[in-house]
Structures are given as structure tokens and as C-alpha cells.
Design goal:
Elements: E1 2-8, H1 18-29, E2 34-39, E3 43-45, E4 56-65, H2 69-82, E5 97-103, H3 127-136, H4 149-154, E6 162-164
Antiparallel strand pairs: 1-4, 1-5, 2-4, 3-4, 3-6
Length: 166
Amino acid sequence: MILLALGANLPHPTFGPPRATCVAALAALHGPELRITRRSRWYESAPVPPGPQPWFVNGVAALDTALEPAALLDRLHAVEAAFGRARTAPDAPRVLDLDLLDYHGRVETPAAGAGPVLPHPRLAGRAFVLLPLAEVAPDWRHPKTGRTVAELIADLPADQTARPLP
């Protein structure tokens, strides 16, 4: 299973609020070489680390593609760029964030810039990733630790806030 996290906390000039931007990003990704097979509900979450910026809208999608991880990450970055994502400072507000979480359980730590780190190195400690991931893949296990998504959710820090949107 290939898993993708989506998030945004700034409005987009064309698509509007963050939730609509995330929906538009999924539509932009879907095509002949990449098919979205499942999607979680949308969640709102406090910024991590906490700070004076708007809350995020987050979700997780499962997808099917023959693209290899590096090519898929390039595709994700191209969609972010097309939506106006500017990579300034870490943890800065953003119009769109697309992260490759897992690629068929692969564990990869390539040299910097040589491809994605798999699984995503920070997914295990983030409610805004784990809660929607549990909806899409309730039986998912972390490829490095073997821990279930339910176990990872149970171990989340108390300051992690993420709740489903209506």
C-alpha cells in the first residue's frame, strides 16, 4: 500500500480554504499513472510545533501507481509547486503539503536528495497523520517497528490535537 498525507493551513488564491485546496490537490494527482484508491475524512489540527499560525486541514490517501518512490516524490513536489507551495522555513504555514508516508512497507534511508526516506520519519508521532491513516489502513503496521497504527495512536503525546471535520 502506498500512503500519502495531505495538509494545508493557508488559503489558496484559486481554490480557497485549505480543505478545498487539499481536495483540488487530490484531483490534480489523480490520472492515468496515479490513482487515488481511498481517502480519510478531513481533520483539523493544531500546528506542530505549537505556534501562532492557523490550524491545518489534514488527511491521508491510499494510492496506486507504478511510479517508483523518487519519481512519486517528484510528482508530489511538482503538484505542491503548481499550487504555489514555497519552501521557506521548516514548520512554516503552507498552502499545500504532500508527504509520502509509506511505499509498500519499504524501509529506505537514501543520501540527502537521493530519494524519499521511507517510511516518513515523523509520521509515528503525529496525530494529524495517524488518525486519518487509521481510517484508510486500520491494519497498517509501521515498516520499521512493526507497531500497529492503533498502538502508535495510543502513544501520542497529550498535546497532539486533531479532530475530524464535519
